[in-house]
Specification:
The complex is a heterodimer of chains A (about 300) and B (about 525).
Chain A lengths: L2 H30 L7 H19 L2 H25 L4 H19 L25 H5 L4 H19 L1 H11 L1 H6 L4 H27 L11 H11 L4 H23 L6 H19 L3 H7 L13
Chain B lengths: L1 H6 L4 E9 L4 E10 L4 E5 L6 H8 L7 E6 L2 E3 L4 H7 L1 E4 L11 H6 L8 H14 L15 H14 L4 E5 L7 H16 L3 E6 L2 H7 L2 E6 L2 E6 L6 H9 L17 E10 L9 E9 L3 E5 L6 H9 L10 E3 L2 E2 L5 H6 L2 E4 L14 H9 L5 E2 L2 E2 L1 H14 L16 H13 L5 E5 L7 H16 L3 E5 L3 H7 L2 E6 L2 E2 L3 E2 L5 H8 L7 H4 L6 H4 L1 H4 L1
Parallel strand pairs in B: 3-8, 3-9, 6-7, 7-8, 13-20, 13-21, 16-19, 19-20
Antiparallel strand pairs in B: 1-2, 1-4, 4-5, 9-10, 11-12, 11-14, 14-15, 17-18, 21-22, 21-23
Helix pairs in contact in B: 5-6, 12-13, 12-14, 14-15
Classes of the chains: A mainly alpha (about 300), B alpha/beta (about 525).
């Protein structure tokens, strides 16, 4: 494999991995607060179609991104009311949210299926982007990709450096203790769920507006589920989520090239490769039981009833 | 001192505090007065309403009626944050700590006025050493012993500079030596003007420490006393409404065959925060009660799941039941060989919560001829359940009531009764009287003694030293996953067992692996 191709795969991997970065980091914050939202796929779809519609009507990327986030957040809001206020089961509610999102997005996007968008231009920095190799690797992406990197830095800082992040981790581990100390467990969980929804929505918008600038029914194609898996197999640590997301992207791109070389492996088997390889790698690097226990939110998925 | 107290308004005054739950009146117009610098005991049995009352003061529970007067002013305490602002600190019976966070992070979540994690850590170190309760701020809580965790709770309160400190059953997790140490700290706090509400059902502690006491029974105040002027008997009478019962037993144990032999049992805990068992060896003969003393979290859980068969051990010879290698047998096979087992968790492991008393009897007693050709004989099961309810005075509507409709003490009586009624060759009981009121506890103890006198072997794991000294023939101590040599109860003292509980016994963790022991926990310097 020649060097240019290698660089090309890496660059394409970042672009392919970015929707996972958005959705998985959002879900990570949600899960760290102790709430398991299985509705990521549905939230991404609704975010994707909403962002696409706004982009098609206004041509403003900012408006599209904001609208995608609001749409994802609204979906998450439904989930939050069900599970946090009405204390419904999180797993069942999350699954229902996904099914709802699939239907809703298809309905919303009925009139937009045959429209193409111009896409989002890469940012060209004078001098930096023209550097050989480095320029291509680091300075050849669109604005949303850089946003996802800022999100990564922000989430890491928030969780491990800020007091609110400390509280969020505390709530995820022992809501009872947090309540006894006088914190509003339900309020904190609401914010975490809404943030997770907004990021899933943004991830969806990236897909429909920048990555493949068009709307196709069900175009998220399982990426929401992969994001959920990434969070778990990365043992709830942001850096490993990033690694997993880009690894998945890289293998997805690489297997296309392998198919292009005419290797005698059925295409179906190659398409399985990203899922299998990513999970195997993450499971392998995160197999330390202690680290899993220390990082997994102990109250994940358990409805909290404050006793009064 | 009394003059000084009189001239100031009381620190806290409760008037007619009432809290009604759907099934029970937890507090029925309770009055109480605490002066500045006073150590005030709240004495009562489990379920008397002590914890509910404290939670109302701390703003966790909203009272239905009544008034709280704080430093002369009527207040409505809305939340724990509000209580803390007033100067009320609380050390919970079940800790409110976050296990995966560090000591500093845990404390940071409870206080607001700190500049950075570093300055807070320095302050924790300073204050904890000042009060003789040293703590390492960087340690993660899950790696701390229960005694050290309590220390984190106490320091967390002290950093808020409280003027009233509520301590809910603080000594249940401490060695006698650590209790001494804590009393010193409390006396010093009181001398500095902090009032202390001390909740306990241990009479000797209250007589030693407290200036005054309010006694609560079934949600009502049944007495106000100066503990130093009372006897344990008179306090107990106010607490349970009758004389303190004692167990009767024959002095000499029968020297029967070995029913349980544990030989060089080593096992890594399946729980990350658990304790590894290291070369555990002991044996129990028919006709004797062997007690295992120790602070919880020192390997009891790991040992019990290995003995019950819930976890199978690699070397099947390391556990022998009635002379047969049993390390590789599952719980059912072990019970077939004469084992009876009462786990520490009543609901879930000891009984199926939503199933009837009869149904729960079948779960372990089906060996008593309740199954014929694969079909259940419900008549026999019902008779068994009825007898158990009668013999052990289990308070319930009928044998068809679901187990979780009973109170904790009654569930425990039923589960212990179910095992004893099968007349096991070997009975293993964990925490037999946890959360059980004094009368019922006495009955359970007596039943175990009777079983032993009839020739069965009994193994009791308990944290209550008083209980072990009352019923056991021999004692061993478990600390850091190691078990001490056994000692006859008549040839030892609570002090010696207390020292052993901190790992200092022949072959104990303090000798074998001193660097691994938490010097702060075992209070070595303090004892010697």
């Amino acid at each position: 494999m020649d060097f240019d191709l290698f660089i090309h795969i890496l660059v394409a991997a970042v672009a392919a991995g970015t929707p996972f970065v958005f959705a998985a980091l959002g879900e990570l914050v949600t899960e760290k607060s102790g709430v398991l939202n299985l509705g990521v796929e549905g939230m991404m779809l609704v975010g994707a179609v909403s962002g696409f519609i706004v982009m098609a009507k206004t041509g403003s990327l900012l408006a599209a991104a904001l609208c995608g986030m609001v749409a994802g957040g609204l979906m998450a809001g439904i989930f939050a009311v069900l599970t946090l206020t009405l204390m419904a089961n999180q797993v069942a509610s999350g699954l229902a949210l996904t099914i709802f999102g699939v239907g809703l997005s298809a309905f919303m996007g009925l009139e937009y299926t045959s429209i193409g968008l111009p896409g989002v231009p890469e940012i060209h920095l004078p001098f930096l982007s023209d550097l050989p190799v480095v320029g291509q690797l680091f300075f050849s992406y669109n604005i949303l990709v850089y946003c996802s990197l800022v999100l990564f830095g922000g989430v890491s800082w928030f969780l491990y450096k800020s007091k609110t992040g400390l509280l969020l981790r505390g709530v995820g581990e022992s809501p009872k203790s947090a309540h006894a100390l006088g914190y509003n467990v339900i309020g904190i969980r609401y914010l975490a769920v809404l943030f997770g929804g907004a990021m899933a929505g943004l991830g969806g918008t990236y897909l429909s507006v920048a990555y493949t600038p068009m709307w196709v029914e069900g175009m998220v194609a399982g990426r929401g589920w992969v994001s959920l898996a990434l969070v778990v197999f990365a043992t709830w640590r942001p850096a490993r989520v990033m690694l997993g997301a880009y690894l998945f992207g890289a293998i997805t791109i690489a297997q296309f090239h392998v198919q292009g070389f005419g290797v005698e492996i059925p295409a179906q088997l190659l398409s399985m490769l990203p899922y299998l390889a990513t999970i195997v790698v993450l499971v392998f690097i995160s197999r330390d039981q202690n680290i899993i226990r220390l990082n997994s939110p102990a109250s994940l998925g358990i409805t909290y009833h404050p006793d009064m | 001192m009394s003059e000084k107290i009189m001239s100031k308004p009381p620190r806290l005054q409760l008037k007619g505090m009432t809290k009604i739950y759907p099934s029970v009146i937890a507090n029925d117009s309770i009055d109480m007065t605490i002066a500045p610098g006073e150590i005030h005991a709240v004495l009562g049995e489990n379920g008397a309403g002590k914890s509910t009352l404290m939670k109302a003061i701390y703003g966790v529970v909203k009272p239905d009626n009544g008034q709280i007067v704080w430093d002369g002013e009527v207040v409505r305490i809305q939340s724990p944050a509000h209580a803390r602002k007033l100067g009320i600190g609380m050390v919970f019976q079940h800790f409110s700590l976050f296990e995966t966070l560090t000591v500093t992070e845990n404390i940071a979540l409870a206080i607001d006025d700190y500049k950075s994690m570093e300055t807070l850590a320095a302050r924790i170190k300073e204050v904890s050493e000042e009060y003789g309760l040293p703590l390492d701020p960087g340690r993660q809580v899950h790696s701390l012993s229960v005694g050290l965790r309590q220390r984190v709770e106490i320091i967390r309160c002290l950093l808020q500079k409280p003027t009233l400190l509520i301590m809910d059953e603080p000594t249940s997790v401490l060695t006698p030596q650590a209790v001494r140490k804590m009393f010193e700290t409390l006396r010093r706090l009181a001398a500095e003007g902090c009032s202390i509400l001390y909740i306990s059902h241990k009479l000797d502690e209250i007589m030693e420490l407290c200036h005054s006491a309010t006694i609560i029974r079934a949600g009502r105040v049944t007495g106000i006393a100066v503990p130093a002027e009372e006897t344990a008997g008179s306090l107990a009478k106010m607490m349970i409404g009758r004389e303190l019962p004692v167990c009767a037993r024959e002095k000499e144990s029968i020297d029967g065959e070995k029913r349980l032999v544990v030989k060089n049992l080593s096992k890594v805990s399946s729980n990350q925060f658990g304790t590894e068992l290291k070369e555990v060896s002991f044996s129990v003969r028919g006709g004797e009660i062997l007690g295992i003393a120790g602070i919880s979290g020192n390997g009891q859980q790991e040992l019990l799941v290995a003995l019950s068969g819930e976890h199978i051990v690699a070397d099947k010879e390391s556990i022998q039941i009635c002379g047969e290698a049993a390390g590789n047998l599952n719980p059912d096979e072990r019970r077939n060989r004469g084992l009876g087992f009462v786990p520490e968790e009543r609901l879930g492991r000891g009984a199926v919560p939503g199933m009837s008393l009869t149904g729960n009897a079948i779960l372990t007693a089906h060996r008593q001829g309740m199954v014929k050709r694969g079909l259940l004989d419900f008549g026999k099961a019902a008779d068994f359940a009825k007898q158990c309810i009668r013999d052990f005075t289990v308070k319930c509507g009928s044998k068809d009531d679901p187990v979780n409709s009973l109170s904790g003490g009654n569930i425990q009586k039923y589960i212990v009764g179910r095992e004893i009624q099968q007349n096991p060759k070997l009975l293993i009981v964990s925490q037999p009287t946890w959360g059980v009121d004094v009368g019922a506890a006495n009955m359970i103890r007596q039943a175990m003694i009777d079983l032993r006198s009839n020739g069965s072997a009994v193994l009791v794991v308990s944290e209550e030293l008083d209980e072990l000294f009352e019923i056991c023939d021999r004692l061993v101590v478990i600390a850091g996953g190691r078990v001490s040599p056994s000692v006859n109860v008549h040839e030892t003292s609570k002090e010696e067992i207390g020292i052993w509980m901190s790992g200092m016994f022949p072959g104990g963790p303090a000798e074998v692996e001193p660097e691994g022991m938490e010097a702060a926990q075992n209070e070595a310097s303090h004892v010697c």
